[in-house]
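Reading a protein record of the kind used here takes only a little practice. To see the layout at work, look at the sequence and tokens printed below.
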Amino acid sequence: MNEAPIGIALILCDSIITDAKTGKNSLIGLFNNINCNSLPSLHARFCIFAQLTNGRGKQSIDIRCQSLQAEEVVFQTGGEIEFVNPNQVIEIQFELLNLTFPHAGMYTVELEADGMLVIESRFNVTTPQL
């Protein structure tokens, strides 16, 4: 049985730039709030950066964004990672385009490994107050 990894970071941002020489990532436009003029709202680009450690072997990962009020899933995707040793830090990037947020309120992005919640990040979708 594989050991569940530990989540170090789950960051939401506008874009992720990876330096070709060093392989280091730069996270651009970090956010925890999306301001919308109207709802539903189309968000052109939504990036997720995650770091995991302390895992063992191959593990399937799932990442999901949903509204906390309506429990409505905005997106869900996944893949597979493999830990060579438990001290390894694995970095994962997701770029999602043209996401629609149906209503204002609190949303959560959750990352699971082999069906177990590892880390989550929450953000608000808001509209201007009149």
Observations:
- Residues 6-126 form a domain with the Immunoglobulin-like fold (CATH 2.60.40.10).
